[in-house]
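Table 4 source record.
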Amino acid sequence: MCDLIESQPAEKISRMKKLRRTLSESFSRIALKKEDSSFDEICVTKMSTRNCPGVDSVIKPLDTIPEDKKVRVQRTQSTFDPFEKPATQVKRVHSENNACINFKSSSSGKESPKVRRHSSPSSPTSPKFGKADSYEKLEKLGEGSYATVYKGKSKVNGKLVALKVIRLQEEEGTPFTAIREASLLKGLKHANIVLLHDIIHTKETLTLVFEYVHTDLCQYMDKHPGGLHPDNVKLFLFQLLRGLSYIHQRYILHRDLKPQNLLISDTGELKLADFGLARAKSVPSHTYSNEVVTLWYRPPDVLLGSTEYSTCLDMWGVGCIFVEMIQGVAAFPGMKDIQDQLERIFLVLGTPNEDTWPGVHSLPHFKPERFTLYSSKNLRQAWNKLSYVNHAEDLASKLLQCFPKNRLSAPAALNHEYFSDLPPRLWELTDMSSVFTVQNVRLQPEVGESMRAFGKNNSYGKSLSNSKH
């Protein structure tokens, strides 16, 4: 092969080299011309977007701009602000692209199909999520110190909603409980936790838009005094533990469990609500305020001034609510103050000491001389209806432990023998699946009244409850 190449005439090789050089120069010129025209087009479209010039406007190509101004012109083409959110940047780019397309199509006298597709957003007057006028207020459900709750209707999809309208005071700003509730609920998606649909922020108010739920457990028990149907107690308790297990696994404490904060739908679905006092529990443990949890459902460790607590705080409330559903009266209805509340607890569970509760003497408000010495009793002596249901007394006793570390956790409680007669499928449900999707799982009619006979008011926040308990 090498011999064949060497035998070629010198002039032929020279012609081939010349041809190759000519082709190379031609391609370079074409590429340069294409790049220049592309950049000129960018300059035209960008400047037309910003200045909205008429069709006759003349934009100088880059080559006619003096050298000392080229760099400045190129820098002004950037549309991205480093401090702007990515979503905003993308939105602005789309807006500029559409403006460029409109300018081109109007100059040619024709409308491109692409223009019609991108430049015909919904009417400015059409309702959208995140807007105050997207919801119609139907009736007031309740009012508290800083919030009012309305039953409402979405103009976007026609669904009923609960509007928690929080009044903002200029000197105080947004209540921290509202910020906490909104931030926590945005990340919680579970069938047994109330769903936060939307957040609307105006100068005067912050509105949290929740799914509408017909009533709460407090009103449901008021409608059916004397204790609920045992099967319904079991389903309500299972759903409560299911919701708590979900948030506890995410290191979130509710800190304000009470019947008013447990919503009940017309099908019997229970949903945890009011996360205004909830806290994300970090590791290692921090100390928290002991001014949490309504008095009747506040555990003895918190009543005695403890600020170091975990998920066991919520589990005491579960025990109190469980007893109240079965017995028909509050487990520990303190009428005076913290001292009275503790006396009612110790009367049933026994006055604690270092043997039954290691470390109790170090709690700020524990003064042995202030309390009557009581011995512990069987729970059925205080609440006789616990003995009517298999394993109910045992479960209640494992939840109502004075020593916090002895209380049953939510996952452990879900596996207690008390629930052994429920369908196994309930433990296999996904987070967003209702327990009522399982065959043969349904509420039983309560004595005296139909399930449909609900009150119209429900509570979506601690601020709406004006009762002492």
